Amino acid sequence: MDFFTSIPTHIDYVGQAKAEKLYRAIITLFSIVGFVWGYIVQQFSQSVYILGAGFILAAILTVPPWPMYRRNPLNWQNPRSNEEKPAGKKGRNEHSYLVYAAHTMTTSAISSVMYFFTLK
Fold it and tell me: Which long-range contacts does 24-33 make (Cβ < 8 Å, 24+ apart)?
């Protein structure tokens, strides 16, 4: 079981961009080649087979977290402890939420009344 937990399952943002570009290039190339080959031999199934091969190749190259996609890891900040937070200062979250809720209810009520009068 330790073998499965030791396998890396993440890629960084730069790696995601590389994987996306590679995926698009492979699918585009195989779709063009498949279209041209299918047109030459007059078989639509050949175009589908070539495009399917492109999907499989793109999936093999871009879905697993290969090491080429993990070269630029993010340096995360360490979490702050509870002692570092300022004491006695209330957050704006409670007040902001109440203002937002009141605004939303008022806006909904006004729009409902306006909709009711436009029905007649």
Answer: 26/54, 26/57, 26/58, 26/61, 27/51, 27/54, 27/55, 27/58, 29/54, 30/54, 30/55, 30/57
